[in-house]
Amino acid sequence: MTDTFSPVATDNDDARTASVPQQPAEGELRPYTAILLASFGGPEGQDHVIPFLRNVTRGKGIPDERLEEVATHYRANDGVSPINQQNRDLIAALETELAGREIDLPIYWGNRNWDPYFADAFKQLAADGHQDVLVLVTSAYAGYSSNDQYLEDFERTLAETGLKGQLNLVKVRQFFYDKAFTRPNEEFLAAGVQDVRSQLAGAGRPDGKIKVLFVTHSIPTAVAQRQGPARIKELFGTDVYTAQHQAIADYLMGAVAEAEGIDYQVVFQSRSGSPETPWLEPDINDQIEEDAAAGYAGVVVMPFGFISDHMEVIWDLDTEAKETAQEQGLAFHRAPTVGTHPEFISGLVDIMGEYIAGEGGQPLASGEQTVPGDWSDLTTEGGWDTPL
Ligand SMILES: CC1=C(CCC(=O)O)c2cc3nc(cc4[nH]c(cc5[nH]c(cc1n2)c(C)c5CCC(=O)O)c(CCC(=O)O)c4C)C(CCC(=O)O)=C3C
Ligand SMILES: [Fe+2]
């Protein structure tokens, strides 16, 4: 463990056990008539790759060399990102769960960076007569790319489509600390440790030391440092983006019997930008090399920053990190992401139930916070110190 990522003890237990935030007050519960799944989007053919990458990086100062490099990841997969099919599968699974609970809400789909775009989804929602729409974003954590940028996209798209005032969009709260997200990850962690143990036993190294690497997307350090609130920074002794991940890593390691006594660390992947700009570190590949030098025999890689096995998972982990581990002679297991795991699907519908008013305006069901902490207002009150 490096100092930066060691769990921080706190003498302020109250602050870590406050109630689940961001539920609408009773009087604010609205009769939603539709759900919108809002996601990143991805190319579905070779001729989509460059226009998609230009959409993602517009105004972000990403050098052309980086785009060319990332384009090769998509090209190697016929220009197709798996993310769109994963979102279609997610919608189908949610539809089945909703139907099973007799909740009659259609699910629409829109993306930030590729077809179907938010504008198309908004226009379709309006054309079909919807006004109050519950929006589920495919990111578990709060951060600029995973939360705030979506809210900015929605505002801009409402203005551009002339639907401001006509569509009322309410975004479902972050869910990284909810059972929907943590239960499947507990299962993946247990299975990952068991797999690396048996790989090592098979290689005649039953006592080989294992490390769990919890991996998430790197972001520019300056962006991470702008996020509030101060109370989380103080509690964890790090930026709020890292703190969210550290809290889940600490929780999972404590909740899973198979992981007892095993070392672990939060690491980062998919660094972008220009080389001079600092991004959150350590990079997973650097850490694997360091761990090999430090005498570890195997790594369990938990891609808990993501909810599906999209391109950044299959390329940066299944291709690059795996290769690094092989070069270093380490046993390697890449755990799955929550995808359409039944507990993720039912848990998401429980969370949406907090917003979907039933008889008498009461929520239909409630999510369950498994990870202690007051995770309210991660980017709003006391949030971004300055606009980006
Ligand atoms: C925090 C975070 C998440 C997790 C939260 C969430 O899920 O939202 C995430 C997810 C994703 N990122 C993805 C793809 C890309 N991200 C890029 C670039 C960037 N990501 C950033 C951050 C994040 N990204 C940032 C700060 C940049 C720099 C440019 C900018 O400030 O916006 C680039 C440009 C090329 C490059 O530089 O890599 C691509 C192609 C895909 C789709 C994969 C597929 O196609 O299957 C997904 C789900
Ligand atoms: Fe990204």
TrEMBL record:
Localization per record: Cytoplasm
Segments forming a coiled coil: none
Region annotation (Disordered) ranges: 1-25, 360-388
Transmembrane portions of the chain: none
MF term (GO), any: ferrochelatase activity
Principal subcellular localisation of the protein: cytoplasm
Source superkingdom: Bacteria
InterPro entries the UniProt entry points to: Ferrochelatase, Ferrochelatase_C, Ferrochelatase_N
Name this protein carries in UniProt: Coproporphyrin III ferrochelatase
Classification of source organism: Bacteria, Bacillati, Actinomycetota, Actinomycetes, Micrococcales
Gene expressing this chain: cpfC
